[in-house]
Design a protein that fits this description.
alpha/beta; Isopropylmalate Dehydrogenase; 2 domains; 12 strands; 38% helix; globular; cytoplasm; PdxA_fam; magnesium; metal-binding; EC 1.1.1.262
C-alpha cells in the first residue's frame, strides 16, 4: 500500500496573472520543492513564465496515479489548459473557470487516494466572480462545498522559530489563529456570530488541534467581538448574550476554552502563555496580528475537511507578477506544513 509520504503534494498554481505560478517555479529552480510536489496548471504558461524570469526549470508532464520524484530544477505538472493566454499583472475573467478546474482536479485526486494534500497558491476572488461565479467567496468556502461538509475553520499558523520579527510566545512556539467568520463584510459579522456557530467552530478547532497537531487537550482563547469584550454590555451585548453562553456550554463538554477576552490585549505574551490557538470573531481581528508577527513565513490551513489543505498567507500580488521579486517563503512553509499534517493524519489513522 502506498504510504502518505509517497503520495504527491499537489500545488494549485492559482491566479495565472498573479505571482502563484512563479512562486512554484522559483522553489523548483532553487531545489526547495519536496520530491513529491506536483503543480497543477497550464504547462505552456508555466514554461513561458520560467523563460521570462530566467528560471532554469524543466517541466515534466504527468498524470494522476503516476509516480513522481522530482529533483532540483524539475517540476512535475498535471496539465490544465487556460481558456485564454495569461499575461502577468493583467487579470482576465475568462480564466476563472481554469482556476476552479485546478482545484477540482486536486480535490478529486485527494478523495481518490492519489494525493496526500493540497497546497494552494493565491487566487483572485473578484476576477472569479466576474468570470461567471457570482457566489464564490474564497478557497475556504469552495473547498467546504466541494468536500460536502457543513462547515470548516480557517486557521493561520506561524512558527516563531522561522523568523526574527515574531514575539517569543511562551506557548508552543506557534501562533495559531482561527476564525469564527471568514470573508464577510463587517456589516454582516455581528449577525453571523451566533451561539450555534461559536460552539460548532470551537468544536471543529479543538478536534483538529488534536487530530492534526497532536495536542491531546488543546487550550483555546477566544476574542470578544466588541471593544473591551463589550465592557459588561456597555459597548455591545454579543459577549453577554451569545459568546459567553457558548463558551460555558463548551466548557461543560470538557473543552478547555477561555474568554471572551478583549482582542486588543489577548495577543500579548502574558495572555498567550500556554494557549494552543486563538479564536477570533472575524478576519482582520485575528489575521492582522498574525501577519504582523510573521507575514511571509506563515501558512493557512482549512480545518474540518476530509483532506489536508494548506495555503500561503498572502494574495495574488498582481503588481509584482512577472517581475521575479515575489518571496516564495510562505509557499515553502505551506508545503512543509502540508506534509507534516498529512503524515500526522496517516499516523493517526493507523
Amino acid at each position: 500500500m502506498t504510504s502518505s509520504a509517497d503520495l504527491p503534494l499537489l500545488i494549485t498554481t492559482g491566479e495565472p496573472a498573479g505571482i502563484g505560478p512563479e512562486l512554484v517555479l522559483m522553489l523548483a529552480a532553487q531545489g526547495q520543492l519536496p520530491e513529491q510536489a506536483v503543480a497543477i496548471g497550464d504547462v505552456d504558461m508555466l514554461r513561458q513564465r520560467a523563460e521570462a524570469l530566467g528560471l532554469a526549470v524543466t517541466l515534466l508532464e504527468t498524470l494522476p496515479g503516476q509516480e513522481v520524484k522530482a529533483v532540483a530544477g524539475e517540476l512535475p505538472v498535471w496539465p490544465v489548459a487556460l481558456k485564454e493566454p495569461a499575461v502577468p499583472g493583467v487579470l482576465n475573467p475568462a480564466n476563472a473557470g481554469y482556476v476552479l478546474a485546478t482545484l477540482k482536479l486536486a480535490v478529486n485526486a485527494c478523495q481518490a487516494g492519489q494525493a496526500a494534500a493540497i497546497v494552494t497558491a493565491p487566487l483572485h476572488k473578484g476576477v472569479i466572480i466576474e468570470g461567471g461565479y457570482p457566489d464564490f467567496t474564497g478557497h475556504t468556502e469552495w473547498l467546504r462545498d466541494a468536500c460536502g461538509v457543513n462547515d470548516v475553520v480557517m486557521m493561520l499558523v506561524t512558527d516563531a522559530a522561522l523568523h526574527t520579527r515574531a514575539p517569543h510566545w511562551q506557548g508552543s512556539g506557534d501562533l495559531r489563529v482561527a476564525l469564527v467568520t471568514t470573508h464577510l463584510p463587517l456589516r454582516q459579522v455581528a449577525d453571523a456570530i451566533t451561539f450555534e456557530r461559536v460552539t460548532h467552530i470551537s468544536r471543529l478547532l479543538a478536534a483538529d488541534l488534536t487530530r492534526q497537531f497532536s495536542i491531546a487537550s488543546p487550550r483555546i482563547a477566544v476574542c470578544g467581538l466588541n471593544p473591551h469584550a463589550g465592557e459588561d454590555g456597555h459597548l455591545g451585548r454579543e459577549e453577554l448574550e451569545v459568546i459567553a453562553p457558548a463558551l460555558d456550554a463548551l466548557r461543560a463538554e470538557g473543552i478547555d476554552i477561555q474568554g471572551p477576552l478583549p482582542a486588543d490585549t489577548l495577543f500579548t505574551p502574558r495572555h498567550l502563555a500556554g494557549v494552543d490557538a486563538v479564536l477570533a470573531m472575524y478576519h482582520d481581528q485575528g489575521l492582522a496580528v498574525l501577519k504582523y508577527a510573521g507575514f511571509g513565513q506563515a501558512a493557512n490551513i482549512t480545518l474540518g475537511l476530509p483532506l489536508v489543505r494548506t495555503s500561503v498567507d498572502h494574495g495574488t500580488a498582481i503588481d509584482l507578477a512577472g517581475k521575479g521579486v515575489a518571496d516564495p517563503g510562505s509557499l515553502n512553509v505551506a508545503l512543509s506544513l502540508a506534509r507534516r499534517l498529512a503524515n500526522q493524519r496517516a499516523s493517526a489513522a493507523c
